[in-house]
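Justification of resources, computational component.

The compute hours requested in this renewal are based largely on the per-chain cost of generating structure records like the one below. Each record pairs the submitted sequence with a full C-alpha coordinate output. That output is archived, and it is also reused by downstream analysis tasks.
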Amino acid sequence: MSRTTTVSAPGKVLLAGGYLVLDPSYKGLVIATDSRFYTSISPLSSGSPREIRVRSAQFLEAEWVYVVGDDWGVRQTNEGPGNKFVALALSQTLRLASALVPAEELHAVLSSGLDISILGDNDFYSQRSQLLARSLPPTRQSLTQLPPFTPLPTTLAKVHKTGLGSSAALITSLVSALLAHTRAVDLRTREGVQWAHNAAQYVHCRAQGKVGSGFDVSSAVWGSHVYRRFGPGVIQGLLDSEVDPTPKTLHSTLSPSNPAWDQSASPIALPRGVKLLLADVDAGSDTPSLVGKVLAWRKAEPEKASEIYSLLSSANDCFAQTCRLLADASAADPEGYDAAVKALAGIPADQWTADSEATRLFVQARDTLSTIRAHLRTFSTLTSVPIEPPQQTRLLDACAAVPGVLGGGVPGAGGFDALYLLVLSGGQAEEKVGEVWRGWEEMGVCPLLAGEDAGAGEGEGKGKGKGVRVFAGVGEVRGLGEALARGK
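The structure output for this chain reads:
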Protein backbone atom coordinates (compact mmCIF):
# COMPACT_ATOMS: atom_id res chain seq x y z
CA MET A 1 0.00 0.00 0.00
CA SER A 2 1.68 3.24 -1.17
CA ARG A 3 -1.11 5.72 -0.55
CA THR A 4 -0.80 8.74 1.70
CA THR A 5 -3.59 9.94 3.97
CA THR A 6 -3.61 13.59 5.05
CA VAL A 7 -6.20 14.91 7.49
CA SER A 8 -6.46 18.25 9.27
CA ALA A 9 -8.46 19.64 12.17
CA PRO A 10 -8.94 23.29 13.20
CA GLY A 11 -8.16 25.15 16.38
CA LYS A 12 -10.87 26.85 18.41
CA VAL A 13 -11.92 30.02 20.17
CA LEU A 14 -14.63 29.76 22.82
CA LEU A 15 -16.28 33.16 22.40
CA ALA A 16 -18.97 32.55 25.01
CA GLY A 17 -19.57 29.86 27.60
CA GLY A 18 -16.35 29.65 29.54
CA TYR A 19 -16.89 27.51 32.68
CA LEU A 20 -20.58 27.06 31.84
CA VAL A 21 -19.68 24.65 29.03
CA LEU A 22 -18.49 22.14 31.65
CA ASP A 23 -22.12 21.66 32.72
CA PRO A 24 -24.56 19.99 30.28
CA SER A 25 -27.24 22.38 31.51
CA TYR A 26 -25.51 25.20 29.65
CA LYS A 27 -24.05 25.86 26.20
CA GLY A 28 -21.00 27.50 24.68
CA LEU A 29 -20.37 29.26 21.37
CA VAL A 30 -17.16 27.98 19.81
CA ILE A 31 -15.60 29.27 16.59
CA ALA A 32 -13.28 27.03 14.55
CA THR A 33 -10.16 28.79 13.31
CA ASP A 34 -8.44 28.63 9.96
CA SER A 35 -5.25 27.62 11.78
CA ARG A 36 -5.08 23.83 11.67
CA PHE A 37 -3.19 20.73 12.68
CA TYR A 38 -2.23 18.28 9.94
CA THR A 39 -1.46 14.58 10.15
CA SER A 40 -0.01 12.81 7.13
CA ILE A 41 0.36 9.00 7.10
CA SER A 42 2.21 6.90 4.51
CA PRO A 43 4.10 3.59 4.49
CA LEU A 44 7.65 3.67 5.85
CA SER A 45 10.26 3.81 3.08
CA SER A 46 12.47 1.61 5.23
CA GLY A 47 11.54 -0.06 8.44
CA SER A 48 10.06 -3.11 10.02
CA PRO A 49 6.50 -4.42 9.85
CA ARG A 50 4.30 -3.02 12.65
CA GLU A 51 6.73 -0.16 13.21
CA ILE A 52 5.29 3.33 13.50
CA ARG A 53 7.48 6.40 13.26
CA VAL A 54 5.94 9.72 14.33
CA ARG A 55 7.62 13.07 13.77
CA SER A 56 6.96 16.77 14.24
CA ALA A 57 9.52 18.70 12.23
CA GLN A 58 8.71 21.94 14.08
CA PHE A 59 10.40 20.92 17.33
CA LEU A 60 13.58 19.52 18.79
CA GLU A 61 13.54 15.92 20.07
CA ALA A 62 10.16 15.35 18.44
CA GLU A 63 10.47 11.88 16.96
CA TRP A 64 8.94 8.78 18.46
CA VAL A 65 9.27 5.23 17.17
CA TYR A 66 6.83 2.54 18.28
CA VAL A 67 6.24 -1.12 17.66
CA VAL A 68 2.66 -2.44 17.58
CA GLY A 69 2.00 -5.45 19.82
CA ASP A 70 -0.33 -8.36 19.25
CA ASP A 71 -2.96 -6.59 21.37
CA TRP A 72 -2.65 -3.46 19.18
CA GLY A 73 -0.93 -1.57 21.98
CA VAL A 74 2.26 0.36 21.17
CA ARG A 75 5.67 0.40 22.85
CA GLN A 76 8.22 3.17 22.28
CA THR A 77 11.53 1.81 21.06
CA ASN A 78 13.69 4.92 20.62
CA GLU A 79 15.38 6.84 23.39
CA GLY A 80 14.23 10.24 24.54
CA PRO A 81 11.07 11.66 26.09
CA GLY A 82 7.77 10.01 25.30
CA ASN A 83 4.58 11.63 24.10
CA LYS A 84 1.53 10.46 26.00
CA PHE A 85 -0.93 12.06 23.57
CA VAL A 86 0.60 10.38 20.52
CA ALA A 87 1.05 6.97 22.18
CA LEU A 88 -2.54 6.87 23.42
CA ALA A 89 -3.91 8.02 20.08
CA LEU A 90 -2.03 5.24 18.28
CA SER A 91 -2.84 2.40 20.66
CA GLN A 92 -6.51 3.21 21.27
CA THR A 93 -7.27 4.03 17.63
CA LEU A 94 -5.63 0.82 16.41
CA ARG A 95 -7.63 -1.15 18.96
CA LEU A 96 -10.82 0.46 17.75
CA ALA A 97 -9.84 -0.12 14.12
CA SER A 98 -9.31 -3.81 14.88
CA ALA A 99 -13.00 -4.02 15.78
CA LEU A 100 -14.06 -2.23 12.60
CA VAL A 101 -11.99 -3.93 9.88
CA PRO A 102 -10.90 -7.55 9.33
CA ALA A 103 -7.63 -8.44 11.04
CA GLU A 104 -5.90 -9.34 7.77
CA GLU A 105 -6.65 -5.89 6.35
CA LEU A 106 -5.24 -4.14 9.39
CA HIS A 107 -2.15 -6.36 9.30
CA ALA A 108 -1.72 -5.44 5.62
CA VAL A 109 -1.78 -1.72 6.44
CA LEU A 110 0.94 -2.24 9.05
CA SER A 111 3.02 -4.65 6.97
CA SER A 112 5.33 -1.89 5.73
CA GLY A 113 5.11 0.18 8.89
CA LEU A 114 3.65 3.67 9.13
CA ASP A 115 5.41 7.01 8.68
CA ILE A 116 3.39 9.71 10.46
CA SER A 117 4.10 13.44 10.40
CA ILE A 118 2.20 15.92 12.56
CA LEU A 119 2.40 19.67 11.99
CA GLY A 120 0.53 22.65 13.40
CA ASP A 121 0.06 26.05 11.81
CA ASN A 122 2.26 28.77 13.26
CA ASP A 123 -0.51 30.42 15.27
CA PHE A 124 -0.75 27.51 17.70
CA TYR A 125 2.61 28.59 19.14
CA SER A 126 3.99 31.98 20.11
CA GLN A 127 6.20 33.33 17.33
CA ARG A 128 7.65 36.20 19.38
CA SER A 129 11.14 34.71 19.44
CA GLN A 130 11.04 34.10 15.69
CA LEU A 131 10.07 37.70 15.01
CA LEU A 132 12.74 38.97 17.39
CA ALA A 133 15.40 36.82 15.70
CA ARG A 134 14.46 38.41 12.37
CA SER A 135 14.30 41.94 13.85
CA LEU A 136 10.62 42.12 12.92
CA PRO A 137 7.96 43.98 14.95
CA PRO A 138 5.02 41.99 16.37
CA THR A 139 2.54 42.71 13.58
CA ARG A 140 0.33 40.67 11.27
CA GLN A 141 2.49 41.76 8.34
CA SER A 142 5.58 40.41 10.09
CA LEU A 143 3.90 37.09 10.80
CA THR A 144 3.15 36.62 7.10
CA GLN A 145 6.91 36.68 6.45
CA LEU A 146 7.49 33.55 8.54
CA PRO A 147 7.52 30.27 6.60
CA PRO A 148 4.57 27.92 7.11
CA PHE A 149 5.14 25.47 9.96
CA THR A 150 8.13 27.49 11.17
CA PRO A 151 10.70 25.33 13.02
CA LEU A 152 11.04 26.40 16.64
CA PRO A 153 14.31 26.02 18.60
CA THR A 154 12.66 24.32 21.54
CA THR A 155 10.96 21.12 22.63
CA LEU A 156 7.24 20.45 22.79
CA ALA A 157 7.39 20.51 26.58
CA LYS A 158 8.80 24.05 26.64
CA VAL A 159 6.98 25.73 23.77
CA HIS A 160 4.63 28.62 24.60
CA LYS A 161 1.15 27.89 23.26
CA THR A 162 -1.40 30.51 22.29
CA GLY A 163 -4.55 28.79 23.54
CA LEU A 164 -6.07 27.71 20.22
CA GLY A 165 -6.61 24.13 21.39
CA SER A 166 -3.46 22.50 20.03
CA SER A 167 -3.86 19.21 21.90
CA ALA A 168 -7.46 18.73 20.75
CA ALA A 169 -6.65 19.60 17.14
CA LEU A 170 -3.60 17.32 17.21
CA ILE A 171 -5.52 14.38 18.66
CA THR A 172 -8.44 14.88 16.28
CA SER A 173 -6.24 15.02 13.19
CA LEU A 174 -4.16 12.00 14.27
CA VAL A 175 -7.10 9.79 15.33
CA SER A 176 -9.10 10.73 12.22
CA ALA A 177 -6.15 10.15 9.88
CA LEU A 178 -5.41 6.74 11.40
CA LEU A 179 -9.06 5.66 11.17
CA ALA A 180 -9.16 6.81 7.55
CA HIS A 181 -5.81 5.25 6.61
CA THR A 182 -6.80 1.86 7.99
CA ARG A 183 -10.17 2.23 6.24
CA ALA A 184 -11.90 1.70 9.56
CA VAL A 185 -14.22 4.62 8.77
CA ASP A 186 -15.12 6.79 5.81
CA LEU A 187 -14.69 10.43 6.78
CA ARG A 188 -16.86 11.48 3.84
CA THR A 189 -19.90 10.20 5.75
CA ARG A 190 -21.60 11.53 8.84
CA GLU A 191 -21.24 8.17 10.58
CA GLY A 192 -17.52 8.08 9.86
CA VAL A 193 -17.02 11.56 11.30
CA GLN A 194 -19.05 10.60 14.37
CA TRP A 195 -16.74 7.64 14.95
CA ALA A 196 -13.76 10.02 14.70
CA HIS A 197 -15.42 12.48 17.10
CA ASN A 198 -16.16 9.88 19.76
CA ALA A 199 -12.72 8.28 19.49
CA ALA A 200 -10.94 11.64 19.65
CA GLN A 201 -12.99 12.71 22.68
CA TYR A 202 -12.04 9.51 24.48
CA VAL A 203 -8.33 9.70 23.61
CA HIS A 204 -8.11 13.39 24.52
CA CYS A 205 -9.84 12.87 27.87
CA ARG A 206 -7.66 9.88 28.65
CA ALA A 207 -4.48 11.77 27.80
CA GLN A 208 -5.56 14.61 30.09
CA GLY A 209 -6.58 12.22 32.85
CA LYS A 210 -10.14 13.50 33.16
CA VAL A 211 -13.37 13.92 31.22
CA GLY A 212 -13.37 17.55 30.15
CA SER A 213 -16.14 19.50 28.47
CA GLY A 214 -15.12 18.32 24.99
CA PHE A 215 -15.93 21.59 23.18
CA ASP A 216 -12.40 21.80 21.75
CA VAL A 217 -12.51 18.33 20.18
CA SER A 218 -16.09 18.94 19.04
CA SER A 219 -14.98 22.10 17.24
CA ALA A 220 -12.00 20.29 15.73
CA VAL A 221 -14.41 17.72 14.29
CA TRP A 222 -17.54 19.74 13.40
CA GLY A 223 -16.33 23.31 12.99
CA SER A 224 -18.08 26.35 14.51
CA HIS A 225 -21.20 25.66 16.55
CA VAL A 226 -23.17 26.18 19.72
CA TYR A 227 -22.12 23.27 21.90
CA ARG A 228 -23.76 21.34 24.71
CA ARG A 229 -21.53 18.72 26.23
CA PHE A 230 -22.02 14.96 26.48
CA GLY A 231 -22.59 13.29 29.83
CA PRO A 232 -19.21 12.34 31.33
CA GLY A 233 -20.45 8.84 32.14
CA VAL A 234 -20.20 7.71 28.53
CA ILE A 235 -16.41 7.36 28.80
CA GLN A 236 -15.72 7.70 32.52
CA GLY A 237 -15.72 3.92 32.90
CA LEU A 238 -12.99 3.60 30.27
CA LEU A 239 -10.85 6.09 32.16
CA ASP A 240 -11.49 4.45 35.54
CA SER A 241 -10.55 0.96 34.36
CA GLU A 242 -7.15 -0.31 35.53
CA VAL A 243 -6.65 -2.20 32.27
CA ASP A 244 -6.87 -1.12 28.65
CA PRO A 245 -10.34 -1.60 27.18
CA THR A 246 -10.74 -4.40 24.68
CA PRO A 247 -11.55 -3.64 21.04
CA LYS A 248 -15.08 -4.89 21.67
CA THR A 249 -15.52 -2.51 24.61
CA LEU A 250 -14.15 0.42 22.64
CA HIS A 251 -16.47 -0.41 19.76
CA SER A 252 -19.61 -0.54 21.87
CA THR A 253 -18.71 2.57 23.89
CA LEU A 254 -17.55 4.78 21.03
CA SER A 255 -20.16 3.69 18.50
CA PRO A 256 -22.33 6.52 17.11
CA SER A 257 -25.32 4.29 17.93
CA ASN A 258 -24.52 4.55 21.66
CA PRO A 259 -27.27 6.89 22.99
CA ALA A 260 -25.02 8.04 25.84
CA TRP A 261 -23.31 10.32 23.31
CA ASP A 262 -25.94 12.98 23.91
CA GLN A 263 -23.98 16.14 23.06
CA SER A 264 -25.32 18.69 20.60
CA ALA A 265 -23.49 20.85 18.05
CA SER A 266 -25.79 23.39 16.41
CA PRO A 267 -23.96 25.05 13.48
CA ILE A 268 -23.25 28.75 13.60
CA ALA A 269 -20.99 31.29 11.92
CA LEU A 270 -20.04 34.89 12.54
CA PRO A 271 -22.27 37.30 10.61
CA ARG A 272 -21.11 38.35 7.16
CA GLY A 273 -18.85 41.39 7.37
CA VAL A 274 -17.65 40.52 10.88
CA LYS A 275 -14.03 39.47 11.26
CA LEU A 276 -12.41 37.67 14.18
CA LEU A 277 -9.09 39.10 15.43
CA LEU A 278 -6.96 37.24 17.95
CA ALA A 279 -3.94 38.20 20.03
CA ASP A 280 -1.35 36.39 22.11
CA VAL A 281 -0.84 38.39 25.30
CA ASP A 282 2.55 38.13 26.99
CA ALA A 283 1.36 36.86 30.34
CA GLY A 284 0.47 33.31 31.24
CA SER A 285 -2.61 31.69 32.73
CA ASP A 286 -2.85 28.17 34.09
CA THR A 287 -6.26 27.14 32.76
CA PRO A 288 -6.63 23.99 34.94
CA SER A 289 -5.87 26.10 38.01
CA LEU A 290 -8.44 28.73 37.06
CA VAL A 291 -11.10 26.11 36.38
CA GLY A 292 -10.35 24.25 39.60
CA LYS A 293 -10.81 27.40 41.67
CA VAL A 294 -14.08 28.29 39.97
CA LEU A 295 -15.48 24.78 40.44
CA ALA A 296 -14.49 24.84 44.13
CA TRP A 297 -16.26 28.21 44.55
CA ARG A 298 -19.36 26.93 42.77
CA LYS A 299 -19.54 24.00 45.16
CA ALA A 300 -19.10 26.26 48.18
CA GLU A 301 -21.52 28.98 46.98
CA PRO A 302 -24.22 27.18 44.96
CA GLU A 303 -26.83 29.98 45.14
CA LYS A 304 -24.47 32.74 44.01
CA ALA A 305 -23.08 30.43 41.34
CA SER A 306 -26.54 29.62 40.02
CA GLU A 307 -27.37 33.31 39.74
CA ILE A 308 -24.24 34.33 37.82
CA TYR A 309 -24.37 31.20 35.65
CA SER A 310 -27.96 32.02 34.72
CA LEU A 311 -27.08 35.62 33.83
CA LEU A 312 -24.15 34.53 31.69
CA SER A 313 -26.17 31.79 30.02
CA SER A 314 -28.90 34.23 29.01
CA ALA A 315 -26.40 36.69 27.57
CA ASN A 316 -24.51 33.94 25.74
CA ASP A 317 -27.72 32.59 24.22
CA CYS A 318 -28.74 36.10 23.20
CA PHE A 319 -25.45 36.65 21.37
CA ALA A 320 -25.74 33.36 19.48
CA GLN A 321 -29.32 34.18 18.50
CA THR A 322 -28.29 37.68 17.38
CA CYS A 323 -25.62 36.16 15.12
CA ARG A 324 -28.29 34.02 13.50
CA LEU A 325 -30.66 36.97 13.11
CA LEU A 326 -27.88 38.98 11.46
CA ALA A 327 -27.39 36.13 9.00
CA ASP A 328 -31.12 36.26 8.25
CA ALA A 329 -30.97 40.04 7.79
CA SER A 330 -28.03 39.67 5.41
CA ALA A 331 -29.94 37.17 3.31
CA ALA A 332 -33.20 39.15 3.33
CA ASP A 333 -31.71 42.53 2.37
CA PRO A 334 -28.07 42.21 1.23
CA GLU A 335 -27.77 45.81 0.07
CA GLY A 336 -29.22 47.24 3.25
CA TYR A 337 -27.04 44.96 5.33
CA ASP A 338 -23.88 45.98 3.45
CA ALA A 339 -24.78 49.64 3.84
CA ALA A 340 -25.15 49.14 7.60
CA VAL A 341 -21.77 47.41 7.89
CA LYS A 342 -20.10 50.16 5.86
CA ALA A 343 -21.64 52.92 7.96
CA LEU A 344 -20.94 51.35 11.34
CA ALA A 345 -17.36 50.42 10.38
CA GLY A 346 -16.38 54.09 10.53
CA ILE A 347 -17.99 54.86 13.89
CA PRO A 348 -17.00 53.85 17.47
CA ALA A 349 -19.50 51.28 18.72
CA ASP A 350 -20.71 53.46 21.59
CA GLN A 351 -22.02 55.91 18.97
CA TRP A 352 -23.94 53.38 16.89
CA THR A 353 -27.67 54.00 16.45
CA ALA A 354 -30.41 51.58 15.44
CA ASP A 355 -31.89 53.18 12.33
CA SER A 356 -32.47 49.96 10.35
CA GLU A 357 -33.04 46.29 11.06
CA ALA A 358 -29.37 45.48 10.46
CA THR A 359 -28.04 48.32 12.61
CA ARG A 360 -30.51 47.41 15.35
CA LEU A 361 -29.11 43.89 15.40
CA PHE A 362 -25.51 45.12 15.41
CA VAL A 363 -26.33 47.38 18.36
CA GLN A 364 -27.91 44.39 20.08
CA ALA A 365 -24.77 42.31 19.43
CA ARG A 366 -22.60 45.14 20.80
CA ASP A 367 -24.70 45.44 23.95
CA THR A 368 -24.77 41.68 24.49
CA LEU A 369 -20.98 41.36 24.22
CA SER A 370 -20.67 44.23 26.71
CA THR A 371 -23.09 42.46 29.05
CA ILE A 372 -21.13 39.21 28.83
CA ARG A 373 -17.94 41.07 29.77
CA ALA A 374 -19.68 42.77 32.71
CA HIS A 375 -20.94 39.43 34.02
CA LEU A 376 -17.45 37.92 33.65
CA ARG A 377 -15.98 40.77 35.71
CA THR A 378 -18.60 40.09 38.37
CA PHE A 379 -17.70 36.41 38.12
CA SER A 380 -14.03 37.36 38.64
CA THR A 381 -14.90 39.31 41.79
CA LEU A 382 -17.11 36.58 43.24
CA THR A 383 -14.57 33.80 42.67
CA SER A 384 -11.34 35.79 43.19
CA VAL A 385 -10.23 34.27 39.88
CA PRO A 386 -8.81 36.59 37.17
CA ILE A 387 -11.30 35.67 34.43
CA GLU A 388 -11.22 39.19 32.98
CA PRO A 389 -8.39 40.73 35.00
CA PRO A 390 -8.09 44.55 35.19
CA GLN A 391 -5.13 44.54 32.80
CA GLN A 392 -7.26 42.85 30.14
CA THR A 393 -10.18 45.17 30.89
CA ARG A 394 -8.06 48.23 30.16
CA LEU A 395 -6.75 46.73 26.91
CA LEU A 396 -10.19 45.60 25.75
CA ASP A 397 -11.71 48.98 26.55
CA ALA A 398 -9.01 50.72 24.50
CA CYS A 399 -9.73 48.39 21.59
CA ALA A 400 -13.49 48.90 21.91
CA ALA A 401 -13.01 52.65 21.37
CA VAL A 402 -11.64 52.02 17.86
CA PRO A 403 -14.24 52.72 15.13
CA GLY A 404 -15.70 49.51 13.71
CA VAL A 405 -14.95 47.29 16.72
CA LEU A 406 -18.12 45.39 17.60
CA GLY A 407 -16.72 44.05 20.87
CA GLY A 408 -14.43 41.43 22.31
CA GLY A 409 -13.37 39.58 25.38
CA VAL A 410 -11.13 36.98 26.94
CA PRO A 411 -11.85 33.59 25.36
CA GLY A 412 -12.44 30.30 27.14
CA ALA A 413 -11.48 30.28 30.79
CA GLY A 414 -10.18 33.84 30.56
CA GLY A 415 -7.01 35.03 32.22
CA PHE A 416 -4.06 36.97 30.92
CA ASP A 417 -2.82 35.08 27.88
CA ALA A 418 -5.24 35.86 25.00
CA LEU A 419 -8.00 38.12 23.75
CA TYR A 420 -10.40 38.25 20.84
CA LEU A 421 -12.09 41.08 19.00
CA LEU A 422 -14.93 41.16 16.49
CA VAL A 423 -14.52 43.97 13.97
CA LEU A 424 -16.54 45.13 10.98
CA SER A 425 -14.99 44.91 7.54
CA GLY A 426 -14.77 47.82 5.14
CA GLY A 427 -13.19 50.28 7.55
CA GLN A 428 -9.84 50.66 9.27
CA ALA A 429 -10.64 48.74 12.44
CA GLU A 430 -8.05 46.02 11.88
CA GLU A 431 -5.28 48.53 11.17
CA LYS A 432 -6.18 50.80 14.08
CA VAL A 433 -6.47 47.89 16.52
CA GLY A 434 -2.99 46.84 15.41
CA GLU A 435 -1.73 50.30 16.34
CA VAL A 436 -3.30 49.98 19.80
CA TRP A 437 -1.66 46.61 20.31
CA ARG A 438 1.78 47.79 19.13
CA GLY A 439 1.70 50.78 21.45
CA TRP A 440 0.36 48.96 24.50
CA GLU A 441 2.91 49.11 27.31
CA GLU A 442 1.16 47.37 30.21
CA MET A 443 1.40 43.96 28.51
CA GLY A 444 3.06 42.71 25.35
CA VAL A 445 0.45 42.01 22.67
CA CYS A 446 1.26 40.01 19.55
CA PRO A 447 -1.43 39.44 16.93
CA LEU A 448 -2.25 36.06 15.48
CA LEU A 449 -3.03 35.49 11.82
CA ALA A 450 -5.78 33.02 12.71
CA GLY A 451 -9.36 33.96 11.99
CA GLU A 452 -12.68 32.20 11.60
CA ASP A 453 -12.48 29.10 9.43
CA ALA A 454 -13.88 29.95 6.01
CA GLY A 455 -15.96 26.76 6.11
CA ALA A 456 -17.37 27.36 9.58
CA GLY A 457 -20.90 26.47 10.46
CA GLU A 458 -21.48 23.00 9.03
CA GLY A 459 -22.23 21.47 12.41
CA GLU A 460 -22.89 17.92 13.48
CA GLY A 461 -25.64 17.24 10.99
CA LYS A 462 -23.54 17.50 7.82
CA GLY A 463 -21.65 14.60 6.33
CA LYS A 464 -18.72 16.51 4.85
CA GLY A 465 -18.15 18.75 7.83
CA LYS A 466 -15.99 21.88 7.97
CA GLY A 467 -13.97 20.83 10.96
CA VAL A 468 -11.98 17.70 10.22
CA ARG A 469 -10.97 17.54 6.54
CA VAL A 470 -9.34 14.97 4.28
CA PHE A 471 -6.94 16.24 1.61
CA ALA A 472 -6.30 14.58 -1.74
CA GLY A 473 -2.65 15.60 -1.56
CA VAL A 474 -0.22 17.66 0.51
CA GLY A 475 0.03 20.15 -2.35
CA GLU A 476 -3.39 21.51 -1.35
CA VAL A 477 -1.84 23.17 1.72
CA ARG A 478 0.80 25.88 1.29
CA GLY A 479 4.15 24.79 2.65
CA LEU A 480 2.96 21.41 3.90
CA GLY A 481 4.93 19.34 1.40
CA GLU A 482 8.14 21.21 2.17
CA ALA A 483 7.60 20.89 5.93
CA LEU A 484 6.95 17.15 5.62
CA ALA A 485 10.12 16.70 3.59
CA ARG A 486 12.08 18.64 6.19
CA GLY A 487 11.13 16.09 8.82
CA LYS A 488 12.30 13.03 6.88
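The longest helix spans residues 302-332. The mean pLDDT is 93.
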